Amino acid sequence: MNYGFDIIMVPLQVIIFLFTLYYFCIGFCGMWRRREKKILIPEKNFAVIVAAHNEEAVIGQLIKNLEALEYPKKLYDIFVIADNCSDNTARIAAAAGAIVHERTHPTKRSKGFALEWMFERLFKMERQYDGVVIFDADNLVHPRFLMEMNNRLCKGDKIVQGYLDAKNPYDTWVSGTFAIAFWVIDHISHLAKTNIGLSAVLGGTGMCITTDVLKHYGWRATCLTEDMEFTMKSLAEGIKTTWAHDAIVYDEKPLTFRQSWNQRKRWAQGQFDVAHRFIPKMLKEGFKQRDIRIWDGCLYLLQPHFLMISTLFIIISYIQLMFPPFYTNIYNFMPSELMTAIMLGQYILPMIILIKIHAKRKAWFYLLLYPVFIYSWIPIIFLGFIHRNEHEWSHTKHTRALSYDELMGKEKV
After folding, report:
1. Is 387 left (phi over 0), alpha (psi -120 to 50) or beta?
2. 1-413, which class in CATH?
């Protein structure tokens, strides 16, 4: 019987060890930034697109924020997609200065479909743009966002993701732990991978795509996680996503655990969907192009699968402990010191990042609750796997009306 358990447990342990070690090493590479000489002359012109569904509470503040960006106004236009709206989103956005396009469709109701519809309209316009920048209606944007994207596009980047910050990190413990998770990912994943030449991943907002890429390859990203779908579709074509650390977008985080649960479940469903559709093609292209960036993209898509495997490993381990005749000595397979270092790193890295970003004291209190957020991913991932073939869009209601000046005033408190 012992050998039967070893046949299962040893391979699982090897997978867990290698996967964890890989991401631990990558995470360490996010503790610094490469020096960069930036291009400071505005050159590229942008179509700034905001996808909005019943966002009357927040859309006005974002448009006013975008109108005041530190970039020549003649080099960008602001478009709002009022997608299946039943409120005053379109009227408020137009009054604030945006060019509004109203869209209604009975079935194709996700953000991905709305963007695809808008891109088709955009390419038929008399004015053509170098890049498309996409925001969510609940966002606020750093004044130099477009200048940072101009810098990246002038250097030849085709797909760029900006820094995903939080608009309301201190409202509730849920928004606080959500913000910490994003700050951590910004550094130990996106920045780290960019530092060593791998590809970042689009985050749904604060992203910039050149129009030549969109025209040549098309958008065709309409699943529950359209950002991840487009990232992997592009990566399979050899186009990586670059990280712009100083192009900051402030995103509204969920206030309640239920909102957080529903949003993350949608992300899990979408990631399983994208993984099952794209990994075979990406593995093939990775070998064909001999491109480690594509293989790394496959590993990124497999993260939910890894969490399921880790959970299975822990469950079987407890079964072994409960029934001594079936217990084996597999824990001696790896040096305990190494596993301890990896486990501690999962908590030390977030602490280092909170120090780096000069987080307020309240964030350190939320760090105590951070494990609740992290381990709640386990049931969410399993539910996401079960419902991976469902594509019903779940809208998160946004209510945190806040101007950019008010946001900056709060951060200085």
Report:
1. alpha
2. alpha beta
